[in-house]
Amino acid sequence: MRTFSDIFTQILRNLWAHKLRSFLTMFGIAWGVGSLLLLVGVGEGFRSGNKRELAEWGRNIMFLFPGRAPAVRGSMNSARSYLLTYQDYLDIRQAGYILNACPIISRNDLHEVSEFSNGSGEIMGTEPQLNEISYLPLKEGRWLNGLDGIQRRHVIVLGNELQKTLFPGRPAVGAFILLNNIRFEVVGSMPHLGRGDNMWLNMRGYIPFQVMKEEFPIKGENHEGAISFIEYQPLVTADHQLAQEEVHQIVGRNHGFDSSDINAFDEWDSIQESKMVGTIFDVMNMFLGAVGMVTLALGAIGVINIMLVAVSERTQEIGLRKALGATNRNILFHFFLEGLLLTLGSGLIGMFLAAGLMLLVGGVKGPEGFDPPRLVPMSAVLAVGSLTLAGVIAGLYPARRAALLQPVEALRQE
Q1: Does pTM top 0.70 for this prediction?
Q2: CA of 264: how far to CAs of 73, 81, 227, 228, in Å?
């Protein structure tokens, strides 16, 4: 009985004897596997990029902004503007479907000055629970606390870019800045939020809500006691629409309009947004799955065709081996190894080439919402495994038929 090394050597000789056909077969398999993995990898990069961007806002955040309430339901021509108030926030926070809420006063027209530079970032007056709703990590120092608001402390937490602007190359925590000539102590700073050159999240400063309300209220006629917007979270993610309806009822009651008119509300629901993105991902997965199935099917057909031809051409060789004492098991094992080497080796080459290309472009900055493509292990196993199985079966089937022939009959085959 021949050793495994002898069989392996014979397989390599057979492949080399038909090197053009072997190369084209391996190229087709590697191309199909590599293309499929790149396609799935790009889709996975899109998925992870969108998830990351949503996560930068926080978890299960819902925003409510000032709006316009129509006097006649559905008729925006009769609409009047209304502002959100601190009382709206207090009522919303006590609602049954609300887990947490926070009022925000935002001003973009304040002038920030340090002893080194000046800036014009967005200053936000907020209560301490904002960092429980939004994603607001700290790089150094501390976040705002309850005593800051109760004692009306003039303290501020700086976003990464605003800190670099006001304190270029210098420590910020413990230093002081002026907001419209009012002195504030820097008690904390934040790392860079977002990706790349994203500035708007990082050109922010956060001060206690009570201080903001007294020192820098929202400008405008009849704007006394107004707030810019409210962030809130539902008690349970699945009940976000019930929480939204409850908020609508509170605001409609407080401002005297029909809360069932959705045109009266200006809001953003990150949970609903996440569901919409999830739907897009589901459709994209179906599309990629269909493309992948077609790609694998075409690759499998090509492999099956070539293996059928290759084995049929070697019927006389099979007959000669049987005449020299080879058993059916020996012949089938030989063709099993040959099909395995051809398909599995080609599939692995395609997988490694796709992985290398993804690694190469991993450092290239993509558009907003896209992460670099990444290799999906399950897709790689499925693609390589299915093509390998198709190639092995395609080789074993005609080899078995030829092996069952009598040696004389096999030698007669043209």
Answers
A1: no
A2: 9, 9, 17, 16
Does the structure show a pLDDT above 50 at 1?
Answer: no
Closest CA to 62 of 134, 167, 147, 144: 134
How far, in whole angstroms, is CA 375 from its chain's centroid?
14
The residue range of the domain holding 406 is: 4-56+275-412
Last residue of a domain, one of 227, 248, 269: 269
What DSSP element (H or E) covers 310? helix 270-312
What whole-number distance in Å separates Cα of residue 149 and Cα of residue 17?
Answer: 84
Percent of the chain with pLDDT over 70: 76
Same domain, 30 and 153: no
Say which DSSP state 128 is in: T
Does residue 322 register a pLDDT over 90?
no
pLDDT of 180-212, one tens digit each? 999 999 999 999 887 656 677 889 999 999 999
DSSP 8-state class, residue 139: S
| 212 Cβ contact list (under 8 Å, min separation 6) | 105, 107, 123, 124, 125, 126
Q: Shortest CA distance to 116 belongs to which of 175, 64, 74, 57?
A: 175
CA distance 226 to 73: 25
Can you read off the two tokens belonging to residue 52? 């990351």
**Model pLDDT, residue 194:** 72
How far apart CA 160 and CA 164 sit, in angstroms, is 6
Q: pLDDT, tens digit, for every residue of 67-91?
A: 888 766 655 566 788 999 999 999 9
- Cβ atoms within 10 Å, residue 138: 14
In whole numbers, what is the pLDDT of the chain averaged over residues?
A: 80
Q: b/e per residue, 254-287, with b = 16+ CB within 10 A?
A: bbebebebeebbebebbbeebeebeeebeeeeee
Domain boundary among 219, 251, 269: 269
